[in-house]
Amino acid sequence: MAITWNSVPDYDTWGSDSSWNCSQWTEWHKTLKAHFGSQRAKFIWESAYAEGTLGASHTDCRTFNTAFRDYAKKEGLDTYASASFLAPVLNAIGGAKDFATGVTNLFSGKSGKVILYGAVGVVGLVVLYKTYRYATK
Predict the structure, then answer these.
(1) Which of 63, 62, 50 minimizes the C-alpha distance to 26?
(2) Which residues contact 115 (CB under 8 A, 6 or more apart)?
(3) What is the pTM of this model?
């Protein structure tokens, strides 16, 4: 099913059902923005997104999906309106996940491995030097 500006969000409900994923929420905002402009699209999208319940599947989008979080931040979308007092906690969890992913990506490439091995080598040399200094006293 193609997402258009007049699509109705498919919310997660109790039990086994279908619901929109993060990319469908993003696509819907883009079509709303193209049809209505930024401000009205923001209002419509935020109102609809807030209708989802706290444990709904789109909670994953605002908490753990980095691409969705980046898009929402870039567009100035409030994804925590339905989270009430948990908003700061969910945002912190998502931020920590983004940070951990960034660190992992840093060390997964060739240059990251060079940095990691270099750091281990420097620490090893410092330990050897301190051990030598301690042993010669």
Answers:
(1) 62
(2) 106, 107
(3) 0.59
Q: How many C-alpha atoms does 91 have within 13 Å on its Cβ side?
A: 14
In 3D, which of 60, 64, 3 has the Cα closest to residue 29? 3
Closest CA to 53 of 28, 17, 27: 17
Structure confidence at residue 31 (pLDDT)? 96
Helices and strands of the chain, counted as H and E runs: 6, 0
Q: How far apart are CA 5 and CA 37, in angstroms?
A: 11
Cβ atoms 35, 62 nearer than 8 A: no
Q: Report how far residue 68's alpha carbon sits from residue 77's, in angstroms, rounded to the nearest whole number.
A: 10
Least confident among 31-40, 52-61, 91-100: 91-100
Q: Report the C-alpha dihedral over residues 84, 75, 66, 102, rounded to 10 degrees.
A: -120
